[in-house]
From TrEMBL:
Record-given protein name: Translation initiation factor IF-1
Keywords assigned by UniProt, alphabetized: Cytoplasm, Initiation factor, Protein biosynthesis, RNA-binding, rRNA-binding
Primary location class: cytoplasm
The protein's assembly and partners: Component of the 30S ribosomal translation pre-initiation complex which assembles on the 30S ribosome in the order IF-2 and IF-3, IF-1 and N-formylmethionyl-tRNA(fMet); mRNA recruitment can occur at any time during PIC assembly.
Lineage: Bacteria, Pseudomonadati, Pseudomonadota, Betaproteobacteria, Burkholderiales
Family indicated by similarity: Belongs to the IF-1 family.
Species whose genome carries this gene: Hydrogenophaga intermedia
Matches recorded under HAMAP family: IF_1
Length: 96
């Protein structure tokens, strides 16, 4: 351990704030991988795709139904974490 540094491990840390899960429809694809989404309750917001969706190259188009997470502190921004496909069954895994 370095001299002069004291590490304190606390068990009584504050809990993370719970995210709000909502469903919506993508209205418009905006620049910088952002999307204008209308929630099921009629509220509109700007959302971005989650890192795992970017990593797996999942494309989001206007008209797609999506699940997103909202912070209770800012209800005008959200993170899209799942794209629902209507009329399709589950995808078969790719063979390598």
């Amino acid at each position: 351990m370095c001299a002069g540094r004291v590490f304190i491990y606390r068990k009584d840390r504050m809990a993370k704030e719970e995210l709000i899960d909502m469903m919506g429809i993508v209205n418009e694809v905006l620049p910088d991988t952002r999307f204008r989404v209308t929630l099921d309750n009629g509220h509109q917001l700007i959302a971005y795709s989650a890192g795992k969706m970017k990593k797996n190259h999942i494309r989001i188009l206007a008209g797609d139904r999506v699940s997103l997470e909202l912070s209770p502190y800012d209800l005008t921004k959200g993170r899209i974490n799942f794209r629902h496909l209507e009329g399709r069954g589950p995808a078969t895994p790719r063979r390598r």
